[in-house]
Amino acid sequence: MYETEREDLIKVLRGKGIIDENVLKAFLKVERHLFVPEIIKPHAYSDVALPIGHEQTISQPYTVAFMTQALELNGRSKILEIGTGSGFQAAVLVEMGMKVYSIERNFEIHKNTQKLFDKLGIRAALIYGDGTIGWEEAAPYDRIIVTAGGPEVPNRLLSQLAVGGKMVIPVGDRNCQAMQIITKVSGKEYSKKEVPNFKFVPLIGKQGWKSE
Q1: Which pLDDT value is given to residue 212?
Q2: Coil, strand, or helix at residue 162?
Q3: Which of 85, 87, 145, 160 minimizes the number of CB atoms within 10 Å of its CB?
Q4: What sign for the dihedral angle of Cα 98, 150, 113, 126?
């Protein structure tokens, strides 16, 4: 089901500059329609963000692919994801052979995604909690990916990133963010590049936005 739509989406992603073949292969394998509400399944392979309830969205496929490519994954990296949401991003990372730890702050979303992962046999560690303070017990991480936009980079997350590791996080105001790609060069030294014009739901928590 939806094989043609998935192949068409791959063409769109290639046209937008996604060149990592491992990312594209994962997008062919992971069925996005399984991660969206029944009523919007016909739109699952459009290159747009879609609502999943609780004022949250499943990110635009290009955004997921861009962030995954920016992580520069190799081997079996240990990854912390902030904002499990629908589970699609985590599923892509698992499909690529990564060891995934993911935090979701909305309990209903967390519960529903855990059920979906159990049903689909997706092996990732999911917890309910404040993603802005990370998951100290399982640190350090080779990569950290944040799928919500914050006002700044949380220090707690930086401290849980391994030396040589990368973090991809959107930072800005509540309406528009720049994607920051951060490499931890040493214990206290980081390099950073930014890509503008992304829009995410707000990163809420102790080291993010306050809940309205």
Answers
A1: 66
A2: strand
A3: 160
A4: positive
DSSP state string for 72-130: ---SS-EEEEE--TTSHHHHHHHHTT-EEEEEES-HHHHHHHHHHHHHHT---EEEES-
CA dist 59 and 30 (Å) reads: 14
Radius of gyration of the chain (CA): 16
Residues of the chain falling short of pLDDT 50: none
**Cα(152)–Cα(186) distance, integer angstroms:** 20
Q: For residue 41, which amino acid is it?
A: K
pLDDT digits over 127-177, tens only?
A: 999 999 999 999 999 999 999 999 999 999 999 999 999 999 999 999 999
For residues 115-125, b (16+ Cβ closer than 10 Å) or e, as one string?
ebbeeeebebe
CA dist list (Å): 44 to 59, 169, 185: 11, 24, 38
Q: Is 211 a catalytic residue?
A: no
- Walk me through the domains of the chain, giving residue ranges and CATH numbers: 3-198 (3.40.50.150)
Residues 6+ apart with CB under 8 A from 98: 73, 76, 77, 78, 79, 143
